[in-house]
Amino acid sequence: MTEPFSRQVEVSALFESRGHREALARLMLMVENRYLGLLTGEVGSGKSTLIRRLFQSLDAKLYHPVYIARSNLKPRDFYGELLRQVGEVPPFALPKAKQLWTEALEARREQGDKALAVVVDEAQEMSETMLGELRFVVGHQMDSCSLFPLILVGQSELRRILRLKKYEAIAQRMPLRYHLSGLDSEETAQYIRHQMSAAGLTTPVFSESALIQVHAGSQGIPRLINQICTQGLYDATQRGHEVIEESHIMRVLADYDRQRGAS
Ligand SMILES: Nc1ncnc2c1ncn2[C@@H]1O[C@H](COP(=O)(O)OP(=O)(O)OP(=O)(O)O)[C@@H](O)[C@H]1O
Ligand SMILES: [Mg+2]
Description:
This protein has two domains: 163 residues, Rossmann fold (3-Layer(aba) Sandwich), CATH 3.40.50.300; 74 residues, Helicase, Ruva Protein, domain 3, CATH 1.10.8.60. Helix content is 51%, strand content 13%. The strands form two sheets. It has a five-stranded parallel beta sheet, with helices on both faces. Helix 5 links the parallel strand 3 and strand 4. Helix 10 packs across helix 11. Magnesium ion binds next to helix 2. The site of adenosine-5'-triphosphate has 17 residues, from helix 2 and helix 10.
């Protein structure tokens, strides 16, 4: 038996909600059209998981996926990582790195190399200079299509940042966006059943009213659902219950509230 609400889920065993399906379809479009794209969502809603899924769905003969996740990402880190990915040693000086990157990109296009599909995760943590640099990254002359697909992924705060006047030029160059919300109550119940059956577990069973409480306590955010269900399962197993009732989940949620209040 595997732990049903564990953190790292195999891509093949992922749950697919309507939102996840729609987000994935848009991410594919962003890659195929070489857009500067935006995926935002609540903390723990499944953004990074979706990117794992996207990378697995891309045709490996056509795309070279690049995943960058770093707090306070600066242009030097960004170009450095891209250059390493194409087999170049990044020079220390930023103008040199940019020049080398432009040349490398041109050479790759001429040779018909695989397209890079670049994702910057935790993009709400990007440095201001990196946000400003995006205009250069996507190419000055083009309105929406860039030299390679670049997808920014971040928490809801990123939407607020991109609404600022100073980023208007870059925000206008993002023709495709998606915001991932929590699962609705029906999907939350499906998600929980999916996780239980993927782990090969038939008991304990979550009662209908317990499922409603999990949704209320998590707002359908998968990471929170996992936490609540793990605790609920543990409590039920300790007490030898076959059914997880509403009262069990209420107790778990009250515990969380107490812990939050105490911290
Ligand atoms: N489609 C899914 N199927 C199964 N589990 C999922 C799915 N999406 C998310 N999860 C679960 O929720 C957890 C949180 O997801 P993830 O790390 O992708 O969220 P996030 O939106 O990137 O969060 P953050 O804002 O903190 O970066 C995952 O570790 C996984 O256990
Ligand atoms: Mg994430």
